[in-house]
């Protein structure tokens, strides 16, 4: 059964209700959790291979130019050094924003400061580190030609702008309007587990333990980088300590480890330092955004313009899709949406959690707050008045959209009615207290996925796919779908992930993992159910499976194992159908936040935050909630502290570690509440789920910014809103 058979006709609506265990949605623990806490979940750097050599990457000390010569001799004479590699295929692969799209690359060219250009391999990590520091590389320094700041005049459209009506006239005629320019800085993914790879060859066959989000793509990328057939590449990534986009594509450590291991004829491990991850793995682009909104006296938008300037390295195709949610979220018949990209000599820009909405929504939601103030309409009400019946300019209907419910439920839980409409109304000692709201919105994507499910003759369920778990709950969720569908206890369900030899899952990215690979598991289970129904002598639609028993109306319950003479294995596949283009499927939510701003220091402390979210069927209430919490925390960081700082002289990253790149810690996040609005979206996927992985960040920083204004009356448009800007 493939998805296109079932998906375009949403006749899967009731399929999940055939079994009544209620396993799907339960807040079950992640089965790998205890392994991670006990330190027994093995991460890429931890695979012990016999005779493994250690590689350390060397970054370019110029910002642009060429490698002229690598003087290997001195380093080769150092203790334990086995080799210095900078082959034609090696090290040049930039971490990409979009898996599978590598620009043509000239191997001796340096595109950005600290770009890895060589790998030093030694018997021990210490020897390799020492030798890497001593490696003498001669460069042809062309840094003088580099442009270090976005130049709006030179920027090219990243895509065709969306235009409708007469924006200028609508702005002139509007009863109320705002015209605001925002800036957001670059962000780092900064996953807890640094990038690492252990490579081992057996003849022509490469096995690589890596930290990767998308194994099917990663096999193709690595094979391409090495110039070998993908069938010779075996990737293993069973546990991944966070990705946030930084591991969507392969990066230097994987290619370097593979090449050195081949040359040396022994396993090679390459682990990036925290600084190397910051310096050479992609960033989220900084943005400059101009937002113009115009509305009538009733607050209904007539003019809506969102224009953004982003950057990337010259020749890179990815551009942060800043206006993505602006395409469908609010009304306004006179529209302009445009993103332009400028070339800049900083490390590659790519997908960082919720590319587009993360920064686009945080600016838009501040603009909406300012428009609400101009109209005198409550900001929650203003948003509710501006939800269109169909996508503006497209006429596309929406699938499920629980934004009104999210705003209402969030407002009620938070106590929004206690907010003063005017700023500076509440003071406690030296702290100004204020409240802010923002909408959340994020596109929903269904990705191609395949999964294999086996019901063993003794009643055990095994789910297998090369899908990854980046800390998000894939192991738990995929097991829940199978346990639900096959009526077996969750304790008898095993999920195997992160092995490229298993069927090709969707991979973890773009919030699509659980709904897409979950749908493939669902369809594999449907096929198993059909076989069981046949064995029981009933129609597939009438089969009931629960607590390890099978029955139907008029057919006595029997243990499922009685129907099995051998293991029963089926594969489920899903692909996006044509319906996706006809229905806008997005995910929605609302943030409410209370901050305290110090009147003397300008320091902002978060006091509490509530988020309410609707994203289709909840597959696991605990992991979904955790995703929302994590997103909100990142939103708070975006609002208050997070910022990549580049030296304007040569484009090098100044704050290249977690001591200088400030993310919120526990003490910064006192009180968070998440409300999950259960819903079914039959258009989104056979399991009626959409994605939630990225939703919690999309707009969260706007709520914080709006609360700051409500607290102390200072309106800022440049993120992050650090004390120096507030005073
Ligand atoms: Mo995500 S930024 O697609 O991992």
TrEMBL record:
SMART domains: Ald_Xan_dh_C (SM01008). Residues 10-20 have a biased composition (Basic and acidic residues). Residues 38-143 form the Aldehyde oxidase/xanthine dehydrogenase a/b hammerhead domain. InterPro entries: Ald_Oxase/Xan_DH_a/b, Ald_Oxase/Xan_DH_a/b_sf, Ald_Oxase/xanthine_DH-like, AldOxase/xan_DH_MoCoBD1, AldOxase/xan_DH_MoCoBD2, AldOxase/xan_DH_Mopterin-bd_sf. It comes from the Bacteria. GO terms for molecular function: iron ion binding; oxidoreductase activity. Residues 1-31 are annotated as: Disordered. PANTHER family: ALDEHYDE OXIDOREDUCTASE MOLYBDENUM-BINDING SUBUNIT PAOC, XANTHINE DEHYDROGENASE. This is Xanthine dehydrogenase family protein molybdopterin-binding subunit. It comes from Paracoccus haeundaensis. The lineage of its organism: Bacteria, Pseudomonadati, Pseudomonadota, Alphaproteobacteria, Rhodobacterales.
């Amino acid at each position: 059964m493939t998805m296109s058979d079932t998906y375009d006709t949403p006749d899967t609506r009731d399929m999940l209700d055939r079994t009544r265990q209620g396993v799907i949605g339960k807040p079950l623990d992640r089965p790998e959790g205890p392994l991670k806490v006990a330190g027994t979940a093995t991460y890429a750097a931890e695979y012990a291979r016999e005779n493994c050599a250690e590689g350390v990457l060397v970054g370019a000390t110029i910002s642009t130019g060429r490698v002229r010569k690598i003087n290997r001799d001195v380093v080769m004479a150092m203790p334990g050094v086995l080799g210095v590699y900078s082959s034609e295929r090696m090290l040049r692969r930039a971490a990409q924003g979009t898996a599978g799209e590598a620009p043509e690359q000239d191997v001796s060219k340096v595109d950005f400061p600290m770009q890895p250009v060589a790998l030093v391999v030694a018997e021990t990590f210490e020897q390799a580190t020492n030798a890497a520091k001593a490696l003498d590389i001669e460069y042809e320094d062309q840094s003088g030609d580099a442009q270090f700041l976005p130049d709006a005049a030179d920027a090219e459209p990243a895509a065709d702008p969306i235009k409708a009506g007469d924006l200028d006239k609508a702005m002139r005629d509007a009863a109320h309007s705002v015209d605001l320019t925002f800036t957001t800085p670059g962000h780092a993914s900064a996953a807890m587990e640094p990038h690492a790879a252990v490579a081992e060859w057996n003849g022509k066959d490469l096995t690589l333990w890596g930290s990767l989000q998308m194994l099917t793509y990663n096999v193709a990328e690595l094979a391409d980088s090495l110039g070998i057939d993908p069938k010779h590449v075996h990737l293993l990534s069973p546990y991944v300590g966070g990705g946030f986009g930084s591991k969507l594509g392969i990066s230097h450590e994987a290619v370097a480890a593979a090449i050195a291991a081949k040359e040396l004829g022994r396993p090679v491990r390459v682990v990036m330092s925290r600084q190397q991850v910051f310096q050479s793995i992609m960033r989220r682009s900084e943005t400059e955004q101009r937002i113009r909104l115009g509305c009538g006296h009733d607050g209904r938008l007539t003019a809506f313009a969102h224009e953004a300037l982003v950057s990337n390295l010259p020749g890179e195709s990815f551009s942060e899709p800043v206006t993505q949610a602006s395409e469908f979220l609010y009304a306004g018949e006179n529209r302009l949406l445009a993103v332009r990209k400028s070339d800049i000599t900083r490390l590659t820009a790519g997908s960082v959690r919720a590319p587009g909405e993360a920064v686009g929504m945080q600016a838009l939601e501040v603009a909406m707050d300012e428009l609400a103030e101009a109209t005198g309409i409550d900001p929650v009400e203003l948003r509710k008045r501006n939800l269109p019946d169909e996508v503006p300019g497209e006429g596309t209907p929406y699938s499920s959209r629980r934004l009104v419910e999210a705003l209402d439920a969030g407002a009620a839980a938070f106590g929004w009615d206690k907010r003063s409409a005017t700023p500076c109304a509440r003071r406690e000692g030296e702290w100004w207290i204020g409240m802010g709201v923002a909408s959340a919105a994020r596109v929903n994507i269904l990705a191609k996925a395949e999964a294999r499910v086996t019901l063993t003759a003794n009643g055990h369920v095994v789910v297998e796919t090369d899908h990854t778990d980046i800390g998000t709950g894939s192991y738990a969720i995929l097991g829940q779908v199978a346990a639900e569908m096959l009526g077996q206890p969750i304790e008898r369900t095993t999920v195997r992930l992160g092995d490229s030899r298993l069927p090709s899952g969707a991979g973890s990215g773009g919030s699509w993992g659980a709904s897409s690979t979950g749908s493939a598991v669902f369809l594999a289970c449907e096929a198993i159910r059909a076989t069981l129904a046949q064995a029981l002598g009933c129609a597939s639609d009438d089969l009931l499976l629960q607590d390890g028993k099978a029955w139907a109306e008029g057919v006595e319950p029997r243990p499922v194992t009685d129907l099995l003479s051998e293991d029963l294995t089926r594969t489920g596949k899903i692909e996006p159908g044509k319906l996706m283009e006809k229905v806008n499927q997005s995910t929605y939510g609302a943030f409410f936040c209370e901050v305290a701003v110090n009147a003397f220091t300008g320091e902002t402390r978060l006091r509490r935050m509530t988020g309410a979210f609707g994203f289709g069927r909840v597959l696991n209430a605990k992991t979904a909630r955790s995703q929302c919490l994590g997103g909100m925390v990142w939103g708070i960081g975006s609002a208050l502290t997070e910022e990549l700082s580049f030296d304007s002289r040569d484009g090098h990253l100044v704050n290249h570690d977690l001591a200088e790149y400030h993310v919120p810690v526990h003490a910064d996040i006192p009180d968070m509440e998440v409300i999950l609005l259960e819903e079914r979206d039959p258009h989104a996927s056979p399991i009626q789920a959409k994605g939630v992985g990225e939703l919690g960040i999309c707009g969260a920083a706007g709520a914080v910014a709006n609360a700051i204004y409500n607290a102390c009356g200072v309106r800022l448009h440049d993120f992050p809103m650090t004390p120096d800007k507030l005073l």
